[in-house]
Predict the 3D structure of the following.
Amino acid sequence: MIRESFTLKLSGHLFDSEDLLPKYVDLIRELWKNGYRMAIVTGGGSLARRYIELGRKININESLLDMLGISASRLNAQLLAAALSDIAYLPIPTNLDEVFRAWSTGRLVITGGFQPGQSTATVALLISEFLGIKRLIDCANIDAVYTNDPRVDSNARKLDKVSISELMAILRSRTVAGTYDLLDPWALSIAQRSGITIYVIGCGKLSSLRRLITEGTSDGTVITP
């Protein structure tokens, strides 16, 4: 059971599912009203990818492409906050100072990206560090961290538990294809310096999130600082 405050990072892929998103809204509201306190960071998903791909075709520079992705992630945050307007803080915070002011109100804080060059995973870790939160749940587009991309390698082995140092070594050796989509080295370094434990679970299984929060049982990967 996770009774202390935690950060919830939601994959942008979640916002592509008209069936799954309403269930997340209901679960988040239920958890909040039962006393679980969290800050939420949303990814940009297919909306961000579409605009970035289109932008590249018309020669927009990388920093401005990042801003398109950030705008998409903030739109997803706005959508979620609007659905949870009875408990969520509005407007959407866009930097750490605004996050702190929003958190101080006691309402549910939901954000997207902050600035170019940062993944939303990095934003989630920065918020965790800033607020003194020691647990981050990453509801990703994959159900765990593997030794290779399981979508292309049938021999990929799931890692039930791994330290940040071990995962950084794997990232440097490039043996985990697609891990950047989960956690980039900057995000991991923030978790390491502040002693933040990360739980990677699949966003497609709502039961995984409920079980992790209410029972403390993870069927994904636990990344220790």
Remarks:
- The helical segments are 20-33, 45-57, 62-83, 96-104, 120-131, 164-173, 185-194, 206-215.
- The beta strands are 6-10, 38-42, 109-111, 135-140, 145-146, 158-159, 161-163, 197-202, 221-224.
- Residues 6-224 form a domain with the Carbamate kinase fold (CATH 3.40.1160.10).
- The chain is about 45% helix and 15% strand.
